[in-house]
Amino acid sequence: MILLLREITLALILLICRAQVAHAGVCPSNPDTIKPCTCTPTTIACETTDKFELDVVLGLIAKGQDPQGLAFDTFILNASEISSLDRGVFHGLTFNNLKFIDCFRLSCVSSEAFAGLQPNVTSIYASDTHFDWFGRRDCSIFEAIRYLKNLKSLKIVRSKITEIPDNAFTGKLGQLSDLSTIDFSGGQGGVITQVGEKAFNDLPNVQLIDLSRHRISSIKSHGFEITLPIKNSLLINLEHNALKNNSFGNSCLKTNVKTELRLGENINLHCLNEEVFEPFLVNRRNKTEDNIIDLTITPIDCSKCNLWLLENEVNLNLRDKLKNILTSDGIDFWKKTKDDCSVNSVNVL
Questions:
Q1: pLDDT tens by residue, 112-137
Q2: In this structure, how many other beta carbons lie within 10 angstroms of the beta carbon of residue 173?
Q3: 88: which residues sit within 8 A by CB, 6+ positions away?
Q4: pLDDT-based confidence at 281, cuts 50/70/90?
Q5: Do residue 109 and residue 145 come from a single domain?
Q6: Contacts of 66 (CB under 8 A, 6+ apart)
Q7: CA-based angle 53:55:59, to the nearest 5?
Q8: Is the same domain home to 100 and 206?
Q9: Quick one: which of 89, 150, 138 has its CA closest to 114?
Q10: What is the pLDDT of residue 11?
Q11: Is residue 268 within 8 Å of 243, Cβ to Cβ?
């Protein structure tokens, strides 16, 4: 019995040790050979404002290593002169986390830039990194992401991406079934103007889609439609954009899970189109599963285009579903009467 316990203990110790070294890459013996990059058993970081050959440096780190020696936890690129990530740039090196910081010129990401990383990458973080592909599909960061089947968190903030393309997150190697966080918030200068068709359709575990502080004026048909059963509730943040009355395509908000939609600070959005928003606000079997829209600092017209809200106030329980809804003159919308709102809107778009 004692011998058996000793064997079990040794086996557990071995498993713990293996887990601890799972991402213990092997670095070159002479660190000067890989400048301006640095290497530790967990992290490779390339941080410089000068030009350098990223492909060459990563190739030197990978050269002659066995598979275990290629496994690191984090890759950090903070390099203002790098303009592209080409096919095979990582030379078999693997990472859990990819971070891109202040890569102001990085616009072209090959669809095969992350080749070999597919089973490993769970997180991508980028800030103040260009990533706009100027219409070249072979340079689109989205084409590369679609291969990362185990990705859980994607945060690309303050980029120069101008659109979320059609089918943006339809996986190439199966569903991106673990992806729960998508954060493209724009800070003070976001430039996204459009959300494409079925951009988020194939994501069964998504919980956050943040596209706040951009210039979004168009959401194409089925833009946020999610047909797969989602396990958790969903938050869609579209605050501080350029949304207008006619910005919403057919079935663009057709989610099949409890959803909070934030539309605050869209100052040109005056009418909630009944064809778009009534299906979103329909009663669920359980009130706790009802969808919610937050309209903070979004002036809603008291006019015919919103009359349907007053007509369905009770049967759709809209007072609980529409938060912070004020009219263009700053009055609580629910204090208006049907007669008050039986006039044509002066804001037609």
A1: 999 889 899 999 999 999 998 777 87
A2: 12
A3: 112, 113, 115, 116
A4: very high
A5: yes
A6: none
A7: 120
A8: no
A9: 89
A10: 47
A11: yes
**12-16, 85-89, 269-273: which has the minimum mean pLDDT?**
12-16
Sequence-distant (6+) residues with CB within 8 A of 141 are: 109, 131, 133, 156, 161
Q: Does some domain include residue 1?
A: no
123, 127, 125, 129: which is closest to 148 by C-alpha? 123
Q: How far apart are CA 338 and CA 336, in angstroms?
A: 7
Tokens of 242: 């350029």
Closest CA to 230 of 257, 253, 199: 257
User: Number of folded domains in the chain?
Assistant: 2
Q: What's the rounded Cα separation, in Å, for the pair 253 and 236? A: 10
Residues 6 or more apart whose CB falls under 8 angstroms from that of 247 comprise 216, 217, 218, 219, 269
Q: What is the Cα–Cα distance from 22 to 9, expressed in whole angstroms? A: 20
Question: What pLDDT was estimated at residue 2?
Answer: 54
Do 295 and 335 touch, CB atoms closer than 8 A?
no
Six token digits for residue 324: 């912070």
- In this structure, the answer to whether residues 203 and 121 fall within a common structural domain is no
Tokens of 25: 């890459």
Give dist(CA 213, CA 192) in Å, integer: 9
Range of the domain at 142: 24-158
Contact 227, 201 (CB under 8 A): yes
For residue 14, give the DSSP letter.
H
In whole angstroms, what is the distance from residue 241 CA to residue 263 CA?
A: 8
CATH number of domain containing 199: 3.80.10.10
Mean pLDDT (the chain) is: 91
3-state SS, one letter per residue, for 67-113: HHHHECCEEEEEECCCCEECCCCCCCCECCEEEEECCCCCCEECCCC
CB atoms within 10 A of CB 55: 16
Tell me if 217 sits within 8 A of 191, measured CB to CB.
Answer: no
